[in-house]
Amino acid sequence: MSKTRSGRRQYYDLFSHVYDTFIRLHARKDEGSTRHYIVESATWENVQSPRILDICCGTGSVILAFSVLYPEGLTVGYDFSRGMLRAAKKKDTHEMSHFIEGNAVSLPFADNTFNVVTCSHALYELKGQNRKTALLEMRRVVRPDGTVLIMEHEVPRSPLVKFFFNVRMAAMGSKDAFEFSKAGTKPYEAVFSSVTLSHTPSGKSRLFSCSK
């Protein structure tokens, strides 16, 4: 593991202790609606026990929402931070989900395994080729009739909010973070056969629904 990646994992291991509090303060009333938007966007036909994978799951909010809605299914949270995974497991009081540590660019799952693959507010943190490789991995593990749902931040319109957004992008240390945030559907269309863009009710996030 590179020093940069090791440092980022240590950062998120520490951040996991205050992550949920930070999100509540940052998102306020929009936190729940944003999470439910991605969950409610997952659809399938004639599947009684869906298989759902949440990549970069953090403290598990999205995958745990899936597990409550589909208790008969297989729900898997995947993240490279042990701290985040520990926090997610603590929240999974009924042990309904599985949590696995690993890298988004190399998923330890067979081809065509999942009905739905999600990734929420994380892909922009990956750099260049790693981001495309992660998308290719999502495409590989989702079923031919499945869906990949990727949620990312909207580019703010307010000058003040946009300033802080740009600071956040710069803090990622990725030269193409700005380009990716403004590229719309292009990065996804390079990997998937069909891409649909929608927006959360709050207007703060956008959802890319991708078909294999």
Labels describing this entry:
212 residues, alpha/beta, Rossmann fold, 7-stranded mixed beta sheet, 9 helices, 7 strands, globular
Task: Give the C-alpha Rg.
Answer: 16 Å
Per CATH, which architecture? 3-Layer(aba) Sandwich
Question: Helical proportion?
Answer: 40-55%
Walk across the major sheet and give the strand order. 3-2-1-4-5-7-6
Assess the beta-strand content as a share of residues. 15-25%
Domain count: the total is 1
> SSE order, as H and E?
HHHEHEHEEHEHHHEE
CATH topology: Rossmann fold
Q: How far is the first residue's CA from the last residue's CA? A: 30 Å
Number of helices: 9
Low-confidence stretches: none
Oligomer: single chain
CATH class: Alpha Beta
Q: Work out the number of β strands.
A: 7
In terms of structural class, how would the helical and strand content be classed?
alpha/beta
Outline type: globular
Sheet with the most strands, sense and barrel status = 7 strands, mixed
